[in-house]
Fold each of these.
Amino acid sequence: MTGAALASTTLTVDLAALADNWRLLKARAAPARCAAVVKADGYGLGASEVAGALAAAGCDTFFVAHASEAVELRARLPAPAIFVLHGPPEGAEKELLRHRLTPVLSGPGHVAAWTSLARSEGRRLPAALHIDTGMNRLGFSAKETEALIADPAQLDAIDLVLVMSHLACSEERRNPMNAVQLRRFAAIESRLPKAPRSLANSGGIALGGGYHRDLVRPGIALYGVEPGPETGLGVKPVMRLDARILQVRGVDRGESVGYGATHFFAGPGRVATIAVGYADGFLRTLSNRGHAYIDDVRVPVIGRVSMDLVTLDVSAVPNARAQPGASVELIGPHVSLTELSRLAGTIEYEILTRLGRRFERVYTGGGGAA
Ligand SMILES: *Cc1c(COP(=O)(O)O)cnc(C)c1O
C-alpha cells in the first residue's frame, strides 16, 4: 500500500471474494477441473496478485494469451501449469521451454515449430491443441483438423496434454451456436489422441455438464461478473473503484462544464472534480452519461470525460459531504461494473482490462496467498 498518499483514486481488489468465486465455479464444474484465465494482467486486476490468491486456493492451471505474460507469471508461480493461448512465439519457442510453459498449438505451423524444437531437444514436448469449432479466430480449421486426424504421426513429437476449443456465444444460453460447437467438438475429440478436453469459458460453465468436459477455463466470472443475464452462476463482486474529490466549485445558471461546453447548468449548482479520466479507463463515452455515488446520493457525470479528470454534478449532495478529499464511488455497491459498462456502451471485460495504472491498488482478503 505504499504510495497511498500520492494517488487519489483507489482500486480495491478483494482476493478472498476472487478465491470464493473460483471455488464456486470449481464446485459447479465438478468433476471437471477448474483452471483460471489470467490474461491481460488478470483482466486488469493484477495477474500476479490474482494468480497468487487462486494458487493458494488450490488452482493449479492458468491460461494467459501472450508468451510474455506467461514468463512473468512463471516468475511469480513456480509450480502450476501455465498455458499460452497464442502459441509458441515464432523464433522464441525455446523461451517457453526454459520457463516450463505450455503452448496452445493453433495450426499446422505451430505443430511444425514445436515439433522441430522437440527434435532438437531429443524428447517429446508438452502442448495443447486448439480446434476451431466455429469461432474462426484461432485454432485448427475443420480442414486442418481432418488432415491431422488422417496423419496422426504429425503429433509424434508432441506430448498432448489438452485438446481445447472456444465457445463463441456461451453467455447466451439459448443461442443455437452452443450446441453446434459442442457437436463439432464431440465429433472431433474422439478421433484425436487421448488427452484431457476443454471447451467451457465462464458462460460455458453455466451451460452445464456436457460443456464442462475435463477442464473448464473461466475468466470473467472469477472477477465477479455474471457472463450473461441468464447464467446465474452466483459469483460476487471482486473489485471496487473509489476516487477522492479534488475540488468543488459553485456555478451559476447558464455556465457550462468542461471541453466542448457540452453541459449547461439550468440553475445554480455545484461541480466536483475527481482525478480519473479516459487515460485511466473511465471511457470518454461516459461523458454526460455515467454516474457515481457519494454515500447514497447519485452524482451524474456532467460534461466530457477528459484525459485525467471527470466532473460530477454534486448539487444534490449536502455541502459537508461534497468537499475536497471526500470519497466518490465509481464502481461498487451502488454502481455495478455491469451498469457502468452498459452506460459506457461496452462490456465489463473492456472496462476491467483498461483500468488505469495510475490508481492506488489495494488488495484485501489475501491472507492465505502464497
Ligand atoms: C479469454 C478466454 C477464456 C475466458 O473467457 P471468459 O469469457 O472470460 O470466461 C477462455 N478460453 C479462451 C480461449 C479465452 O481466450
Amino acid sequence: MPSQRQIYVTKPSMPSKEEYFAEVSDLWETGILTHSGVKHQELERHLLKFLDVPYITLFTNGHLGLEAAFSLFPAGGEVITTPFTFVSTTLAIVRAGLTPVFCDIEPEQYTLDPSLVEKAITPNTVAIAPVHVYGNVCDCGAIDAIAKAYNLKVVYDAAHAFGECVDGAGVATFGDMSMFSFHATKVFNTGEGGGVACSDGTLKRKLDAWKYYGFETSGGDVEVVGANAKMTEFAAAMGLCNLRHFAEEQVKRAHVCACYRNNLNGVAGIHFCPEQPHVQSNYAYLPVTIESELYCRDVVVSRMDDQGVHSRKYFYPLTSEYTCFEYLHANPEDTPIALKASREVLTLPLYADLSEDDINRVCEALVKALR
Ligand SMILES: *Cc1c(COP(=O)(O)O)cnc(C)c1O
C-alpha cells in the first residue's frame, strides 16, 4: 500500500515570517523582552476590545491563569466543576489547595448541567468552575444565577471559547473570571500563552500580582503566594500578528465545519452537537458522537488512524478517572452522561487551511471506519 499523506487533527495558525519578524524587530532596540513590555501592553489593549471585557491579565499559559484565578480563594474550599474537560481544569483547582466536586454535564452540549449544581453546594463551596467545552457555551444565565443566590464565584474555563459572543456579548462577560488559552493548538495562539478576563479592577490587580511572584508593586511587599507566569514579548508579538488574521481564519473554519456537517449529514450512528443559535461560534472543534449502541468509538478512531486520518479522543478519560485524583474517591458512574461522552466523542481534524479534498478524505475514512 502506498504511504499516504497523514491528516492531523490540528495545525497551528501562524503569520508569515516577514510579519512576525517585523513585529519583533524593535525588541532588539528596546532590549525589553518581558515584564509587561510594549507588546504585552498592546496585546492586552487589543484583547479588551476584541473580547468585549473590562479587564484582562496575560499569562505564560492558560493553565497558570487558571491556577492564579483559583488561588484567590481560601484554601480548603470546594469547587463545583465538570470531569469532562482537559486535565488542566481539575489540576488548577487542586494545585490552588481547593477540592474539586464533580457534577455531571448536559447531554447535548456536554457543558456543566446547571440543574445539578445546586445539589452539589455545601457550606464549604467557594466557586463554580464550568467549562465551555469545544466552544459550546455553558448555560451562563442559569449558572451565574445560582452563584449569585448562594454567594459563590464563577470561574469559567473558556480555553475553547476565544472570540465567542452570546447574544452579542463577549463570552467572558459572564461570571467573575474567564480563562482563555492561547496554546499553539487553540483558535488564537501566542505559541504558549493565556489570559484571564475579569469583571473588576481588584481581581485584575490580584491576578497581576500573582503572576509576578505576588508583588503588588515592584519592590513592594509580597502579600499572596504567587508564582512567575508573565507572558513574554515574543509571545505577545505572535498574538498581535495572529489577531490580525483571526477574522479571516474564522471564515475558513466556519466553511470547514459546514462542509463536514453537510457531508456527514444523515450518516447513521453519529451525530453532532446542535448549533447554539444565540452563540457566535468560533468553530474551535468539531466533536462527533459515535453512538455506543452501534459502534465502538475507539475502534473507529484506530480505523481512521490506519487510513492516515487522525481524530482525537477528546476528552478521554474523565479527569476524575486519573490516578492522581484517586484520593478524591470520585465515582465516574456518578456522572453518567460525562462518562458516556468520554467513551463516545471524537473530534475531527479542523484548521483554517484544511482543504475540501482533505475534508472529503476525513469523511470517507470515518464512513469506512463505521462499516
Ligand atoms: C488548553 C486547555 C487548558 C490549558 O491551557 P494551556 O494554555 O494549554 O495551559 C485548560 N483547559 C482546557 C479545557 C483546555 O483545552
